[in-house]
Amino acid sequence: MSIAFKVYVRCLNCQKDYGTTLCPPEADDAPGDIDELLESNFLSSQRFKCSDCESSIATVTGVKDLCNGALIRTQELCS
Ligand SMILES: [Zn+2]
Prior knowledge:
The chain has 79 residues and is mostly beta strands. The protein has helices at 34-39, 41-44; strands at residues 5-11, 17-22, 58-65, 71-73, 77-78.
């Protein structure tokens, strides 16, 4: 069973909130839950792009585990 997360981000330029679905590749070191995702290089390697202003600087405001419905709010800065 593959795992999927919904990552909520806020554009630092226009303050628009939007969400994007991430599906980590299935690998031995793939993140298996939200905590692992937040600590993983996989998340920091993602490039978010605002659909309105195309800014790529965004704050991750929350992550939802689409497999079990868990939701964690964060304020981690992701650029
Ligand atoms: Zn924007």
